[in-house]
Amino acid sequence: MAKIKIHIKDLFDIPTAVIYNPDSYAVSTDVCIDSRKVKKNSIFFAIKGEKLDGHKFIKQAIENGAGAVIINKNRLRYFDDVDLTIIAVKDTTKAYGDLANIVRKKSKFKVISITGSNGKTGTKEILAAILSEKYKVVKTESNNNNHIGVPLTIFSAASNTEILVLEHGTNHFGEIKYTAEIAEPDYAIITNIGNSHLEFLENTEKVYEEKSALFESVSLGGKVFVNNDDKIIKKNTKNFNNKILYGFKNKPDVKGKIVSYDALSYPEISIQYKNRKIQAQVPLLGEVNAKNLLSAVSVAFELKLNKREILTGIKKLSAFNGRLKPVFVNDSMIIDDTYNSNPESVTAAISVLKRVKKYKRKILILGDMFELGKSSVELHKMLSEMIIKNKNIEVFLIGKLMKKLFNEIKEVKTNASCHSSRKSLAEKIKSDNFKNTVVLVKGSRGMEMEEFITIIKENMS
Fold this sequence. Notes:
Largest sheet: 9 strands, mixed
Number of strands: 20
Strand content: 15-25%
Number of helices: 18
CATH architecture of the largest domain: 3-Layer(aba) Sandwich
Structural class: alpha/beta
Radius of gyration: 24 Å
């Protein structure tokens, strides 16, 4: 399906833009920042990144068929011999976002934006799957949730798109505000506020301050979806008028209840909104995914999906890579939760492991949690209470920060070990047969914990 057309007027609407050879411009539907992916008549943005400068690839983009190039004004003198439309701007990265906002404004789709300390990707995937039962949906792919990824998703939308589901990530102040102003959402969700990116955001109140820019950006007549169980979000949204409260506690507008868990920790959930009620087995592990589902269904109710559409969408869900994804090998189970880590998501992971009843033996393999700033050591130590409480869960730890946790638990947790090297942990894994065992592996991205998933699989086979 064709994408949204970008006319010369749209390019003139980019702030700071000066256009050379405008008469040679032909209407385009493709925007690209990678010269290797340029198609005939693409608009190529020469963006300077941390490692590569797109200005060095302009000639390649032209050879591949670019119809227009957008460059920084201070580079203009190097491209006098380029015989096609050149748009010179003060900052190509900013102009990339500006053009995305122009495309968003001229589109007919509704935008649903999601952020939060945990669960934003899961909620995005669940919501997109459910809404696809009624609407033509485009969603953020992979982790394209930053100042480049949000515009990229907008540019990827076909002209017949009805719903755009965007994920917004951050680890520095101002990032959510920037991408939210590009997206101008009709609906917004902040899944929760936790101890994430404290290295830059300092504390949970400031995490909310950063995330709340998404709520502030919702267009007139739009709605925000408030997690009524999150004390920080609830406290700070009392004065919002157009809001829908969802949660498991007290009396929100959309009320969820976990009816039961099966032997593998898959929850069954009931959700009620006014006179509507659904009940479903969630094909995703743990309470955390029940929470993600509740937020997604809250939006689905608002967008007039019926019971059949919602339940059909839920049945089609499957686990997301690196996020509590179960892998079954012979008579054992691996839970791959290696995508990232912070205190709240570790707590959620332990809860999942605790509820798995099918396997007699349970092992938790944990790597360091990063980007926690000055609170890093203390937040690692604070995991000790929950780990000690779950006496039957064996614990393998790795990393300098997990050593701090180990020192807190080693006197009472006799089935815990800490490894100073990857080789040591690998040898520990290889020496075990993991028969009738469930193993959960988790750590921050920089710990590359997925390597140990591979070793476990090989050892189980």
